[in-house]
Amino acid sequence: MSTPFPRTRNSVLGYDVEEVDEFLALARSAYDGRDPASGGPALSSEAVRGTAFTMQKGGYDARAVDAALERLEDAFALRERDRAYRAVGDDAWYQQARSRAAEILQRLERPDGQKFTRAGFLRLGYDRRDVDAFSDALIEYFRAGADVTVTDVRTASFRPRRGGYSEAQVDAVLDAVVDVMLAVR
Question: Which domain of life is it from (predicted)?
Fold first, then answer.
């Protein structure tokens, strides 16, 4: 029996094999068009993006699984966009995407050091300077079409800092950026 992803050595952590296999079976069913009304599972690009797996020694290589999840998210997003086109039309779809982009820009254009809620003096959050610098790149993407890719946003990482920005809030905005980028592809 073959495995869909390379496995780590028995002494190295990877993603839980059973969890990944179960998720892929769910994703395959959802992509094939089975939804709760027809007795199958429902899944969206947002759900794919938010998927996390337990770590286990000798599991699937995380990089390989993450790359597959990105492709899967793209496929679901494309399908969602096509359905929305048919439901509301191109103009309405792009207007919704522009509206979301405007909301994101309002957040990102706040003054440096004030773009997001602080994690708290004693709690770790994302380094504000790192996030502010990446925010500047996103502003250029939305304003002038700067070369920022979905992968750049998905893989953005920030140093941890006491009193930094709230990780949950920054991550939510980055997820919204990915949604907008996928919507207008």
Answer: Bacteria
Query: What angle do helix axes 17-31 and 62-88 make, rounded to 10 degrees?
Result: 20
Produce one character per residue of 35-49: b if its CB has 16 or more CB atoms within 10 Å, e if not.
eeeeeeeebebebbb
Q: What is the pLDDT of residue 29?
A: 86
**Using CA atoms, how far apart are residues 148 and 178, in angstroms rounded to an integer?**
11
Which residues are 56's β-sheet partners?
14
Domain boundaries, the chain: 13-86, 89-183
Q: Is 80 exceeded by the pLDDT of residue 84?
A: no
Terminal-residue alpha carbon distance, the chain: 37
pTM: 0.68
Kindly tell me if the per-residue pLDDT of 166 is higher than 50: yes
Q: What three-state secondary structure class fits 119?
A: coil
The token pair that represents 122 in the structure block: 């004693």
Q: What is the DSSP letter of 5?
A: S
What's the rounded Cα separation, in Å, for the pair 90 and 53?
A: 36
- Scanning the chain, the segments in alpha helix (DSSP H) are 17-31, 45-49, 62-88, 90-108, 128-144, 150-154, 167-183
Query: Across the strands, what pairs with 126?
Result: 160, 165
Q: How many CB atoms lie within 10 A of CB 120?
A: 12
